[in-house]
Design goal:
alpha/beta, 6-stranded mixed β-sheet, single chain
């Protein structure tokens, strides 16, 4: 059995582009919701959320909506989403500093956010070329013995990108 810690970095689903709508407030399109459901099904086959899991999201509407779609599909619609105000329009280094605050007992982190920050983070952590399309997720396995507090560059493996 694989007891390693895993980080699932999930880019928000496709969002509407309507003149006059603030970027922060953009909602998911129906196509985006459907694609998010399909990708969430793939995550459900790999992971069950429990007391050793945490879900973190950007406060932007499209990221929160994507997190809720994933949690619904995963059968955990009431699972607590930690909204992290500072990860909207941040750098990958800031995002890493947020991850580094996760307690040692946590084994799985689902992180919902935006590009290019998420792709930059995947590449920094794994030293592998990556690109996260809308609704896709990167499954990252921490090196043996590492906690999220210890996570840094080139100390994790990119298991796969699912989209």
């Amino acid at each position: 059995m694989d007891n390693s810690k895993k980080l699932y970095i999930i880019r928000h689903a496709k969002a509407e582009t309507i003149p006059g709508i603030n970027d922060f407030d953009r909602a998911l399109t129906s196509e985006g919701i459907q694609h998010a459901k399909q990708v969430a099904e793939k995550l459900t086959a790999k992971l069950t959320l429990n007391e050793n899991s945490v879900v973190i999201s950007s406060p932007a509407n499209r990221a929160l909506q994507t997190a809720r779609v994933f949690l619904d599909v995963m059968g955990s619609p009431s699972f607590d989403i930690q909204i992290e105000e500072s990860i909207y329009e941040c750098t990958y280094k800031h995002l890493l500093s947020v991850i580094n605050t996760i307690p040692d007992h946590i084994d799985h982190v689902l992180l919902f956010g935006h590009n290019p920050t998420l792709t930059d983070l995947v590449e920094f952590l794994t030293r592998k070329s990556a690109y996260l399309r809308t609704s896709s997720f990167a499954e990252i396995k921490l090196d043996t013995g590492f906690t999220f507090q210890m996570l840094s560059g080139n100390c994790a493996d990119l298991v796969q990108i699912i989209d």
